Amino acid sequence: MGAKILNKGLLSLIQGGTRKGFQQYGVPASGAMDDYSLRIANILVGNDEYEACIEALIIGPTIEFHQKSIIAITGGDLGPMLNGIRIDMYRSYIVSSGDILSFSGVKNGCRTYIAFGGGIDVPIVMGSKSTYLKGNLGGYKGRELREEDYLKLLKFDGDTNSILPKKYIKEYDKEIMLRSIMGPQDNMFDSKNIKTFFNSIYEITNECDRMGYRLSGDKINHLNGADIVSDGIAFGAVQIPGHGNPIIMMADRQTVGGYTKIANVISVDLCKLAQGKPGDKVRFKEVDIYEAHRILKKYEDEISEIKDNINKFEVINKKFYSISLNGVNYRTICEEIH
Questions:
Q1: Least-confidence region, from 227-241, 263-277, 302-316
Q2: Residue 302: in which H helix or E strand, if any?
Q3: Distance CA 15, CA 7 (A)
Q4: Is the terminal CB of the chain with fewer CB neighbours within 10 Å at N or C?
Q5: ∠ at Cα 8 (135, 48), nearest 5°?
Q6: What is the SS3 assignment for 21-88?
Q7: How far apart are CA 162 and CA 168, in angstroms?
Q8: Pairing mode, if any, of strands 150-152 and 256-265?
Q9: Cα(18)–Cα(249) distance, rounded to whole angstroms?
Q10: For the residues of 218-242, what is the DSSP string, one character each?
Q11: Mapping DSSP to helix (H, G, I), strand (E, B) and coil, where does residue 106 land?
């Protein structure tokens, strides 16, 4: 029992927590691009925060359920629909055998996360269920989901739905401020170019994927060339290759690289960047390590607060209706809750 993929959407991947402890062997950490959306989706369905979800880009998949389950959808709004009826983001829904989840089109953001109560039954590879495409590793057979794929869902018991209070729902702007810590090779740029980096508005180019986001804008010049002895690359590292355009390294980044890194985006702000699309604007703001730690603590405190304040309710009756208004037909869900 589980769920069948009727339409794969665009780059629908099984992603959850990162693959820890293997970068020393050249294996990228991978995992969800948007940490916040992953964790909230799982909280809404009662899972461990880093249980694997489906991460979909721009065009969501169509999924037919063959068992009772509970789902929640967070992150970018791709227009989720249940049996052809628009449903809300950031709340859970009990689904039954025969129900179909689909998506009408992107409204904001670009990456959506679909969590399933109990989780997805795929092998744990090197400590994670997450997919690393280039290595054909993890997830569903190491690849993106395709039509006719069948996902085994782990057992879910219960009839309690959850909804996230509106104050915790993130908004995605077309201009993204990225707080960043200087280094580790900021000494390879003069003060003029560092000032250019923090005062410029950059644009996300079409060359943006799970490995990295290339930006266009004012070029950053090096003092003595772009090359260094290869060293480790963190999630959010901002490389400046010889062409002078920044590249922000993302979840599927390589483990080491030989280009100078002028700064590193703080982990909390990478969630915002993960929802950025080509054409969106990016600005950098300098913070020090102490401020970054304070921001991270506030972020983790908010997630703990969400666990304590999430609204739970039970749907005791659900009906689907077709309504005609001014010659336009609508399909709606009517829920009786307790």
A1: 302-316
A2: helix 289-309
A3: 18
A4: C
A5: 70
A6: CCHHHCCCCCCCCCHHHHHHHHHHHCCCCCCCEEEEECCCCEEEECCCEEEEEEEEECCEEECCEECC
A7: 14
A8: unpaired
A9: 15
A10: S----SS-SEEEEEE--TTEEEE-T
A11: coil
Amino acid code (one letter) for 229:
V
Length of the chain counted residue by residue: 338
Residue 24, exposed/middle/buried by CB under 10 A (0-12, 13-18, 19+)?
Answer: exposed
Structure tokens at 244: 């002078």
User: In the numeric block, which tokens belong to residue 291?
Assistant: 């401020």
User: How far apart are alpha carbons 15 and 38 in whole angstroms?
Assistant: 9
Q: Percentage of residues in the chain with pLDDT exceeding 90?
A: 85
CB neighbour list of residue 123: distance below 8 Å, 6 or more residues apart: 129, 138
pTM attached to this predicted model: 0.92
Encoded tokens for 320: 């689907």
Q: Do residues 191 and 220 touch, judged by C-beta distance below 8 A?
A: no
Q: Tell me, what amino acid is at 215?
A: L
Q: Which domains does the chain have, with CATH numbers?
A: 2-168 (no CATH), 175-287 (2.40.100.10)
